[in-house]
Every structure is written in structure tokens, then in C-alpha cells.
Amino acid sequence: MSAVGSRAKSVAYAKRTSHGLVASPLVSGTLRLPGFVNAHSHTFQRALRGRAAGRDFWAWREGMLDEAERQSPELVRETYADTYREMLAAGYTAVGEFHYLGAAEARAAAEAAADARIAFVLLHVAYARGGIERSRQPSVSAYIAEVEQLRDAGIAVGVAPHSVRACPADWLETIGAYAEREGIPLHVHADEQPREIEECLAEHGVRPIELLARCGCLGELTTIVHATHADAGELDLLAAHGCTVCVCPTTEADLGDGFAPAGALLERAITIAIGSDSNVRIDPLEELRELEGIARRQSMRRGVFSPDTLLEIGAAAGARSLGMTEWPEIEVDLGHRSLAGVAGEHVRAALVAGCGADVVVS
Ligand SMILES: [Zn+2]
């Protein structure tokens, strides 16, 4: 799907090497690629990077909820637009905002995205229990009504039961049925932390993805965010239902979550997408390199995902997860020092293996 961009200047040919072989053509100009798609972002969490917020995920979460409390429509409108511009500069041309700060802030996030000119899907979160009051709706019907109002306002919306922690089974059933009837994306966090699995087993007698299956929440427009600790049976369910898994490796590393089950997802041909999640880093190439790095460390092999597969994970898979058919392309600077001396046939692999988001032409 990619082609050397119209701004390509020339193709420079390497001289004979010391071994007397003719090297492949080196490249310059730009390479046009589908834009990267950020399938999972909590944009307000960018404010937390570098803060020493506790010793584990649960302690970090306390600091995160304090930051969530501080948000207002005005603050969201301003700071999200800045962060969305950073995403665009890094090559993300579309974002799924997993939003649990309230309806007024949801509209502000959509306005910020329009202002920054990034393609946007609001993954409006259902929150029944736990967390902070501003995230919660009084009933699942109140939640669905909120979603309808946001859709009526012209915002592209997907439903997002926050997690099996935050939503009881009857909420999951109602939301799963609504998503299926409306043909809209359903995103949900699952299996990010072992404690969440233990609590789900204690409450329901099944693991989180098993509960989501039982409640009718798994389908081709379902994205499971993380699935870090999903077991084989849960991954089989995702494969059987054609779900996507959104991995967020830089955040999962930052929070000490664990490793994405990269090889197990690949074996089952489960679609993988990426997300910048807490936005501790905004760099799609780094997310993809982390994913491949995890797969290599787990398998002690190289080239587990092909470069083309990784680029597809970074772009088309995320778009599918957000229910998008069109999103803007990007151009990569082939003259960037990170690509200096790289032969044309190796550029796509070198992008993932050795480049940061600064290769993207702003
Ligand atoms: Zn998340």
C-alpha cells in the first residue's frame, strides 16, 4: 500500500563494496505510508510521566485518579489538543480516546481532536463501580443515553465498558448487545493485572475474557486492551470471535504490568493493534519495536513479526479496531540520519528496528 512519495528526489546508488558486490540502491526523498493509528489513549495521563507515583500499578492508579479529578472541559480542550499535535508529529494520524472523565470532557476531547486535525473516535467509558464519581453513570441505561447524545452530536463513538472490575455482568450484557445492534466498536481493558483476574474469578467463577464472552461482548469489532495475563483458553476465545488485542508496550513496561503474549497472539492469528495508553511515550515505532522485542525475548528467535506485519499492526489493524475505513497517510524522511546508508529493500525493516518517530515528516 506504500509508495515512494511524490516528493522523492532521487535514488542514489551505492558504489561497489569492498567485497566487489553491487550493493542495493540507497534511497532518499520520502516514503509514503498509511498513518499510524493509536487505538488506545488516555490523553490526560501524559501529565503523569516521570512522576514517582507508587511502587506498583495500584499505587500509580491512585495518583492517576487524582489527576483525573483535576480535569475540566477547559483543561481537556487545551491539553488534549497539544498532545494530539504531538501524536500527529509522531505519525499517529488517528486516535481512539478511551475516556472516563465525563460527558462534557468527552465533547472537549472531540473538539481538541478537530482543532489538532487528528482522526478521532471517542471510546466512551461505562463505569458502574469503583474509581471516582465523575467516571460513573447511575445506570447502564443512563450510560447508553449518554452515548446516544454524543453520537447525535456528530462524534464517532465506540462503547467501552472500562473493565470487568468496573462493570457488573448485567452492564456488560446490555453494552455488548448495544454495540452489536449498532455495529460500533467495543473496547475493554482485560487481564492487565493478576489481581483483576483473581477478583473476577472470586465474583464470577471465570476469568475476565471468559466473562466478556458469556456476556456477549466478544465480536469482530471488539478490542481487548492489554490481555497481558490472558491464558490460553481466553486467547482461544478471542481468536474464535475475531477480536483484536491492543497492546501498549511502553505503558505496560512503565507500569510493571508484564509482557504482552506476543507469540501466543501471533500463533492464533489474533489481530494486534497498538496504543500509547498513558502517553508516557508517543512513538508508534517504539511500540512496534517493543512488541517485536518482547516476541524475540520470549521465543529466542529473530524476525518473529515481519516488518510489513508490524507496520500493519501499527496502522490498518488499529483503524479496523476503531471502525475506521479511511485515515490520513504519513511521509517518512528517507534522508534522515537514522536511515542513512540503508538500502531501499531494508527501509521498512530499519524503520521498526532502528528509528524513532522523528523520521516522520511533520
Ligand atoms: Zn487504558
Account of the 3D structure:
- With 362 residues, the chain is an alpha/beta fold.
- The chain has 14 helices and 11 strands.
- Helix 11 crosses helix 14.
- It is globular, with a radius of gyration of 21 Å.
- The N terminus is likely disordered.
Secondary-structure blueprint of this entry?
Blueprint: E1 3-4, E2 30-34, E3 36-41, H1 57-69, H2 73-89, E4 92-99, H3 103-116, E5 119-126, H4 140-152, E6 157-161, H5 169-182, E7 186-190, H6 194-204, H7 208-214, E8 222-226, H8 232-241, E9 244-247, H9 249-254, H10 262-267, E10 271-274, H11 284-299, H12 307-314, H13 316-321, E11 329-333, H14 347-354
Parallel strand pairs: 3-4, 4-5, 5-6, 7-8, 8-9, 9-10
Antiparallel strand pairs: 1-2, 2-11
Helix pairs in contact: 2-3, 7-8, 11-12, 11-14, 12-14
Bound molecules: zinc ion (ZN).
Residues 40, 42, 98, 189, 225, 277 line the site of zinc ion.
